[in-house]
From TrEMBL:
The keyword Isomerase applies. Keywords: Isomerase. The lineage of its organism: Bacteria, Bacillati, Actinomycetota, Actinomycetes, Kitasatosporales. Signal peptide: none annotated. Pfam families: Asp_Glu_race. The keyword Isomerase applies. Transmembrane segments: none annotated. This is Aspartate/glutamate racemase family protein. It comes from Streptomyces hazeniae.
Amino acid sequence: MKIALVDSGIGLLPAAAAVRRLRPDADLVLSSDPDGLPWGPRTAGDIAARALACARAAAAHRPDALIVACNTASVHALPALRAELEPLVPVVGTVPAVKPAAASGGPVAVWATPATTGSAYQRRLIGDFGNGARITEVPCHGLADAVQSGDEDRIDAAVAAAGRLTPAGARAVVLGCTHYELVGARIRTAAAHEGPLPELYGSADAVAAQALRRLDAAPAPQAPATGGLTVLLSGRPGELPQAARTYAEGRLLADALPAPTGRRPPA
């Protein structure tokens, strides 16, 4: 079984790691776009075109399913990707987990990029699945870029700034950008305001499970860890970015990579 994932950058790591945990025997193809990131400020048409280019590069490796591991691309590119790849390759999009978070009763904070915060898409999602809970949209200025860079100081500053915009007493935080799941523990602490830690609601586990369902494949976390890893950078064969290895999800995936010739793998 081979599953491909598409994102502008390392925001695809949480979903890829979730697939790896469910099926250690599955091959993964990670197709990102370092030449074009970030996608958020681009026009809808440009986002769709770049996501489609990443998907086509991944499709050349004949995956059984493709995960659009990016909220922005799921909004703007999912119809085009499904029109081109399905039914041969099932395409699974990513939707912020507003529905399960709101079911907890609220209050809920939705952390998202400034471009997504207040957008018609997010407002519609909240209207359809908010379940009457008190929901606050929190724009996270610079957080996705900081996570992409792996710069600890930038990450801490962006998380702290978004934390100050989060109302005290939030019982749940929805992670509306896949990059944010890489720093979930820090977000949880910043959103707590020294009170009880809120529950975090990401999308990676749900997306990974949905990909397996689309393939009629059962989770098998005890399967042999034989799954390989292919990395595509704007269509070119490459390696996991160094920043990816600063996160637990990146290190989990890096374990599948062969050591460079003449060098031993890091301890």
